[in-house]
Fold:
Amino acid sequence: MEKTDILSLSLPEVEKLVTDIGEPKFRAKQIYGWITKGMWGENMRNIPKSLQEKLNNVCEFRLPNVKLKLVSRIDGTVKYLFELIDGECIESVFMKYEHGNTLCISSQVGCRMGCKFCASTLLGRVRDLTPSEMLGQIIAAEKDTGERISNVVMMGIGEPLDNYDNTVRFLRLVSSPDSLNIGLRHISVSTCGLVNGIERLQNENLPITLSISLHAYDNEVRSSIMPINNKYGIEELLSACHRYYESTGRRISFEYTLIAGKNDTEEGAIALAAVLKKYMHSGIHVNLIPLNEVKETKLSTSKNVNAFKNKLISLGINATVRRRLGSDINASCGQLRRQSQKESI
Ligand code: SAH
Structure:
């Protein structure tokens, strides 16, 4: 019989598990307190040995294992290569911001979205992460750093909305006061633009921040760097974003990576402002990202970042440039996993 992955369960589900094996319900809260701190077995000090053994018979507890850890000498950013139970690897990045510690987590092993500038997708998708593997990245990073994580961004390896059910379950778990209690307003979910997923998410009553990886001001440019645009074009995507904003009241963050000669001209900024205003009207924030050059792709980073930002602002669009953290440790999307794959070939 397959054992239950206890970290994927909610407190009421652990209560059921505990009472099903003939134990009092109050034990569930104690066990839950331990597992969300990354403790199991004899580390659960107020759990009798007999119950620890019973639990081991019906369920399992696993945290991602730190396979490699890089610490930036510039800003203290920590990049983890985590190994999962089946030997697959994912990445998480711990960043210190004024508003609190942020962890960038992965949602899949690999990715099948095929964006031309992204290292995570080069070898496709291997599998989805379970809710427990998403939660486990946070617990393992808190345990390793000894610090509390107050913000989470789903901007690591994978497309969260391509792993919809596990992502939503993770969001409910991580924000639960019984679990890590990280407020949904402190969580960003980033998508390359799966319109069906955005439409479903709108009705989940989860006040997260939705980030859209837009990266282009028209369909020609977007389709040339993001294959998903052939399925859901910019008009359809931005209309879905508008409905999302109208229904949830949550401002949307548009990620825009500046690629030299591709999408970084002044006309590009004007066209971007126009298309955003046309479909969204308000509730827009543009986050400009200097491209992290990935060796395998031939795209180069733009020097026009500030000019692009200022143009957007002059056109009434709220825009910021993402601070580059951990630039000395390959801290962007999929680069470390890719490196470890190449070394093991
Ligand atoms: N699949 C999701 C989340 C993962 S990517 C998404 O597409 O949004 C997180 C962000 O990093 C996205 O905005 C993505 O476009 C961006 N990104 C990926 N590779 C990058 C690179 N080489 N340089 C800069 N940003 C990159």
